[in-house]
């Protein structure tokens, strides 16, 4: 008998548009011989399933079920593709935990911690061979904090919302005159802001997942952007960024990166598929951790999809492994 899978998408943030694109790909790629899939859209105060006829069928939040005609449908598990809040910050995970419904992504605690870039860096800081750019975590946009930045950090700087995604509200600051506007943009997106020194190096993004009981580190993708950094436009506009999969690393670098990334996955107690962004510093080749994405995009051209295909695996089989792993 087929398992009933809820494909959750939508969201409470600007990343909802990316969630919908990801969900469309998962919906058409997932193995229909194994699973009956119901796309559940989640917006503030509005959780629903849209029928083939366009009817909006509300979700009963008491048990996360829907009723189609006289049939009440409950779900065996959840394929979570909701980027940002509440799918990536632990809120949905906690809800599903209370209902005892398994899901494909990290648990509530890991999701909440990894959504906070500063907290995540503090946890992975002691992993051998992993380096972290010097940074400050700010909780208010004040003149005192601006002076502290100038005193403790060196230009250029990256300024980003601590809990955001898709590079929304992120800026690169080359002069102190640019600092106030950059802080204002970041604080408009979040109450916490991370200010970190720029690392000059090659940028990569690498997927890692648990399937069939083991951790698999995928080939890294090298990000070569025509923009100064991998911002929202570079991530989601065709032609702005060149993505090279597998990325250009020598044998030692590839081996070291794989070793570090597996440790990150284990240290943060990750589940399902995650994506780790990092720099290899120019000259030294040191691995500088940028951030981890616990609900990575699943569009046709997403980095994870490219990397899965690079190891000769069908994306459909990748999804099957993620789903079956959550039942273990």
UniProtKB/TrEMBL annotation:
Keywords for the protein's UniProt record, in alphabetical order: ATP-binding, Cell shape, Cell wall biogenesis/degradation, Cytoplasm, Ligase, Magnesium, Manganese, Metal-binding, Nucleotide-binding, Peptidoglycan synthesis
Annotated active site: 15, 166, 302
Domain (ATP-grasp) ranges: 117-324
GO molecular function: ATP binding; D-alanine-D-alanine ligase activity; metal ion binding
Cofactor(s) in the UniProt record: Mg(2+); Mn(2+)
Residues annotated for Mg(2+) 1 binding in this entry: 277, 291
Enzyme Commission (EC) number: 6.3.2.4
Catalytic activity: 2 D-alanine + ATP = D-alanyl-D-alanine + ADP + phosphate + H(+)
UniProt cross-references to Pfam families, sorted A to Z: Dala_Dala_lig_C, Dala_Dala_lig_N
GO biological process, one term: peptidoglycan biosynthetic process
Cofactor annotation remark: Binds 2 magnesium or manganese ions per subunit.
The organism's place on the tree of life at top rank: Bacteria
This protein's GO CC annotations: cytoplasm
Leading EC class: ligase
Pathway(s) served: Cell wall biogenesis; peptidoglycan biosynthesis
Positions annotated to bind Mg(2+) 2: 291, 293
Localization: Cytoplasm
Family recorded in the similarity comment: Belongs to the D-alanine--D-alanine ligase family.
Entry function: Cell wall formation.
Protein name: D-alanine--D-alanine ligase
Gene that encodes it: ddl
């Amino acid at each position: 008998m087929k398992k009933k899978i809820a494909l959750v998408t939508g969201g409470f943030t600007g990343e909802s548009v990316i969630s919908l694109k990801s969900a469309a790909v998962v919906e058409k790629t997932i193995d229909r011989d194994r699973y009956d899939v119901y796309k559940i859209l989640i917006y503030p105060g509005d959780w629903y399933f849209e029928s083939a006829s366009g009817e909006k069928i509300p979700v009963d939040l008491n048990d996360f079920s829907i009723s189609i005609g006289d049939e009440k449908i409950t779900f065996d598990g959840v394929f979570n593709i909701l980027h940002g809040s509440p799918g990536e910050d632990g809120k949905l995970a906690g809800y599903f935990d209370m209902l005892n419904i398994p899901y494909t992504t990290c648990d509530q605690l890991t999701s909440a911690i990894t959504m906070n870039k500063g907290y995540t860096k503090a946890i992975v800081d002691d992993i051998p061979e992993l380096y972290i750019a010097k940074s400050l975590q700010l909780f208010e946009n004040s003149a005192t904090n601006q002076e502290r930045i100038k005193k403790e950090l060196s230009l250029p700087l990256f300024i980003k919302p601590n809990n955001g995604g898709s590079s929304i509200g992120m800026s690169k600051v080359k002069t102190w005159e640019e600092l106030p506007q950059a802080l204002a943009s970041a604080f408009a997106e979040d109450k916490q802001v991370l200010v970190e020194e720029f690392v000059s190096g090659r940028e990569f993004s690498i997927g890692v997942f648990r399937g069939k009981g083991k951790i698999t580190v995928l080939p890294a993708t090298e990000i070569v952007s025509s923009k100064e950094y991998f911002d929202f436009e570079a991530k989601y506009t065709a032609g702005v960024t060149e993505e090279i999969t597998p990325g250009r690393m020598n044998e030692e670098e590839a081996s070291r990166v794989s070793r570090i990334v597996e440790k990150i996955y284990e240290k943060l107690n990750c589940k399902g598929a995650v994506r780790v962004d990092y720099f290899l510093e120019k000259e030294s080749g040191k691995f500088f951790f940028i951030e981890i994405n616990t609900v990575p995009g699943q569009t046709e051209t997403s980095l994870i999809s490219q990397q899965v295909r690079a190891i000769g695996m069908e994306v459909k089989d990748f999804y099957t492994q993620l789903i079956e792993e959550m039942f273990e």
